[in-house]
Fold these 2 entries.
Entry 1:
Amino acid sequence: MPSNPPPATRSKGRRRLALGALVTALFGQLLTGPAVAAPATDTPSPGRMAWEPCASPSGEGGFECATLEVPVDWKRPRGATIDLALTRHPATDPERRIGSLLINPGGPGGSGVGFAFSAPDAFSPELLERFDIVGFDPRGVGLSNPVLCDEDRVSAQAALLYPDSAASFAALREANRALGENCRDLTGPLVGHMDTASVIRDMEAIRVGLGEKRISYYGVSYGTGIGQQYAERYPHRVRAMTLDSNMDHSLDRWAYQKTETVAMEESYGQFADWCARTPSCALHDRDARALFDSLYRRADAGELVLPGEPPYTVTPQDIQGLAFGYMYDPFTWFRFAEELAQLDAADPAAARSLKARGEPTEFAYLPVMCQDYDFDVPSYATLARFERQLARLAPVTRLSSLAWTDLTGCQDWPTEVTNPPHRLRVDGTPPILVTNSRYDVATPHSWGSNAARQIGREAVFLTYDGVGHGDYWLSPCARDAIDTYLITLKAPRKGTHCPAVWPTGPSAQRQTPGDGLVNPLPELVGTGARR
């Protein structure tokens, strides 16, 4: 798709496929049998899950794996079922174990199983000591009956996500419907039950299966949407909850576009300012805002052609998508500056980078987003008006490629909006820690502050004053606050701010600032998922 995850994931589509194959092998007979079982005779009453030892894809042991049967349609609990795949990393200090910490890495489409396998490198020793870290692949994702779609139809749809006329808008709508119907043909009825409201019912079944009276939860990105709605429906089942880099499920189609576009413009502005004050940035002596505008205009005129066999003609969407991906993590900015310089010089290396983008695999993203948000617009004229208004709000970057393709990708999608946007109604939970970066290109700061306002007195809002997505791995200050809260239930003061952390030199590893933890999100939320 034109808007991709962070740049480090561009060449990782094949690695993600390999990871999936390895994890499937690890589960072995736990996952044999048909993807959708025959209708159950009785209403499911989840019991304790049968955990079996398993090793991570890297060969590291100390993990346990299980499956849990849930209905495809929670309104028909005696109907067809699927198996959810789960992995847990048991607490390393069993005598001081607090309980289970459920985790979700976002997406939609990120693997919670993979997230749990990454726990020893991604989470602090303190969390690992006190909690069983439990990850599950949400319905339609990874090992939980993945949504499958024909790659040719995915590619055909992706090529139409930026319509420029009524005719191309009509072609997009037709391609969206054909893709959605193809996904349903290849996957089955689950495609019509991918909404987050169904996922939180699954999560409650997992709580019961774990034997926990209350659960602790850490969700990042789209995982915050799962947490928000779980707290809304099951407030008395929450022990502690951290929502990191928040969704805002109350937004209409225009507010969604506006807030995402402003976040993109502001984030790129932070990159430009950082480059101007950082001598080792490849664009230190140039105006990075003016350079982006120049590249965009050259691409829009068809004049930005990179040498090669065959030559590669850069599109405006290439420029926007490239910039969007690099805003996830400032510690990739040295490479981003080099790539912009290569594009400007028509260096063949830039063509190799752009051509590596977007290998479609499993496809859970739109089936979730198009059932959680009402993005339909009545005509191309409305879409074109949105585009003009967004360009005025963001004169450099013009729009958010993620938000735009969410909007266009859901036009005429052939499933209902089964979990429509609404303001959160949370009452009766313990304090909930809500965190957001001040400059987050995927889940804007305004989304986090708005979610906290909707949650109300139960919410404690913390702002990381830097750039990026996933505060736990960007800010030692935020990470300490999250760890302390999850372990002790002591939340920081409302309105707490953590200082920005800026890159001072290029790094080939995606370690977090300060303590060597590895940010797992680029590996986990890759192709088929964008938050």
Entry 2:
Amino acid sequence: MKKYLLLLLTGISTTGLMAQKNNDVPFQLQGSVNLPGYDSANRAIYFSYQKNGKEILDSAVIKDNKFSFRSTADVDIKASLQFTKPNTSPNAAADPNSLSLYLSKGVVNVSAKGYLRKSIITGSVVNDDYMAFKKPYLKLDTSLRLLGWKKRSVKAGDAIGAKNVDAQIDSVKNLKLVQLSEFLSKNIAKPYAAEALLMYVSTDGSALSAVKAQQFFDRLPAKQKNTKLGKEITTALSKLTDKTSTINVLKGVDFYDGYAQKVTQPVAKGVTRISNAEYLRQLSPAEIDKIGKTLKIKVTIKSGCDNYDRIGHVALVVMPKGEAYNLEKGEQFELLRIMTPFMYLTRQPDHIPYEAQIDQMVNTIKQGGKDVYLLTEVFGTTGAGQREVIGCDGSLLTFNVSVDLISDKTKDFSTQKGISLLSYYSLDGKDKSAGKNSKQVNFELPQDTKTTVLYLISSGHGAADGGEEYNWREHILDLDGKEYIRLEMSQNCAPFEMYNTQPNGIYFGDISKERRSWCPGGPVPTRVVNLGPLAKGKHTLKVSIPEAEFEKTDSKYYVSAYLITE
């Protein structure tokens, strides 16, 4: 058996190595392969592991399709086996027939009937845990591959079809990010936490948070940071930071009972408390200049003393330059609508991230001659929480809320324009001027458009028997007096079950079989409809929900809609 001592990882001093806690234990690795006779002569297998803070590269000749290694190693650091061609050094890029594994004190067995990566490993409890950890992500990666094929089958020129598939891909990536985040929050000291973090920073969903990734990295054990894997994470974090900028619109702002008298607690500079449940923040010219070609909005809700599902939203309000803020006079665009979960203050997870990609709003935010505001509302009450949640007696704190805008640093000169139609309009059936359960809006285009895209958010509310909270209703869109499209407004709530830590009447049994127009703990979907090129001049758009039962159940749908033209 021949050993090679690799160079110390860069940046690790002798003092630093002495200070690091290593977990070197005696191990024996026994393996079997099934190389054919014509390819078995003088075949070597290489084994890389860590010992005394140094990376060791060991090799063994395969005899009678068997090999073995014996030494001491830090079993918290991932090891790897690598096949090579005769008389060559190990090169995973040239020969990907490799296997990663976690060692254990004593004997670990590797049985490979084909590729090393498909080996059966026994004798290591940590490796068993590692394999169990990977299973749900393998399923998600399979879903992403299938969606990748689906996207490639979208017809050329079908921008809306491609965008819809992109949204599905982003949803799966975000689910992966959520699961990885939850794992890392609770298991950062596990040996394979570094690999989980690399998976996190390599998943480019809209929910990816460079700040959160850096916080996880800071909590990693020092010896994990200084491994080859740790260096890969450092590089990925650096690239992630270099290509994005984050605007903290609200940072940990406390929201209070919407039914109570307005509180007097101070707020951060630049933030205005409109009410206990509404906060306003103007974007500065410097912040607007940070926004590039892409834009994502992220809302994080941390549990307070409201343990029931509530509605919230963030709206963009555009005012003429220098004119005092006035919600009624401003152009309003609802960027993201959320529903809080049933949360119990002391249970995990105690915070919920909501994200939406809003690239279409970049030019509206960056247009000249305007003042731009973000209005955040999360309405709640602690009437029940004060009685039902330990530690909430007398508290008016409903939620703690953060809002971020995250963009790349690529400047874009888009010609897209936003036209506000409806913002949080209460469609309750009382206004019958446009017909039963309908609302019609007029808009005028100053010139012919190449494309006109409608963004629509709608959610049903009303908790009485048979109320719209418990239903989902088909929406009908009429354009210029003719039916244009029918939209199914149901949503699958299963991905958001994990956030509902307070027992409730919605998440029980198989929630995936119960479709709703909104889900506690989830964002309300934004529907995207391509209206095609439209001619200069006046147009009408009507939204109808014919099957809704408004008056009998005291229900309503909150409807927001805007156009993006180009």
